Amino acid sequence: MSRPLPFTDANRKQVASLFRQALRTAFDHTLKFDAYRAETLKIRAQFEANKHISNPEELEAVIRKTKEKLAEWKHPDPYIPPCRPGGTKYERNIPPPNEEVVPGNW
Fold first, then answer.
1. What distance separates the 2 farthest-apart alpha carbons in the chain?
2. DSSP per residue over 56-67, as a string?
3. Mutual orientation of helices 56-73 and 9-29 as an angle, nearest 10°?
4. Is 87 in contact with 81 (CB distance < 8 Å)?
5. CB 26 within 8 A of CB 43
6. What are the backbone angles phi and psi of residue 62, rounded to the nearest 5°?
7. Do residues 35 and 15 make contact, with C-beta atoms less than 8 angstroms apart?
8. Which DSSP state fits 83?
9. Cα(37)–Cα(32) distance, integer angstroms
């Protein structure tokens, strides 16, 4: 496996993806906005604390540790917005089909 080099576009995208995953995981665990906001500030502080890393080995270790932490904290029943696939309202009021529902000539 190739080691990530610091300050590359691929690395920035990976860190941004991990940050978004952390925010989603925090939202899954705390659906109330005030508690969620407090968690987002903690997450941001953790990411900002590691912003200075320029050693590729240290960077790889931090990314691996972050992935492990996200896997550990993954919610068993994540929040799905109601109208998204898998949500409670997804395709609730779909229009009726144009063809005959029961085949045959009655």
1. 76
2. HHHHHHHHHHHH
3. 20
4. yes
5. yes
6. -65, -40
7. no
8. T
9. 9
Q: What is the DSSP letter of 105?
A: -
pLDDT digits (tens, 9 = 90+) for 15-69: 999 999 999 999 998 878 899 999 999 999 999 999 888 888 888 899 999 999 9
Report d(CA 95, CA 79) in Å as an integer. 26
**Against a cut of 0.70, is the pTM above it?**
yes
Are 75 and 29 spatial neighbours (Cβ–Cβ below 8 Å)?
A: yes
Block residue for tokens 């050693």: 55
Could you tell me the two tokens for 21?
A: 């995953």
Per the document, the length of the chain is: 106
The C-alpha atoms of residue 23 and residue 80 are separated, in whole angstroms, by 14
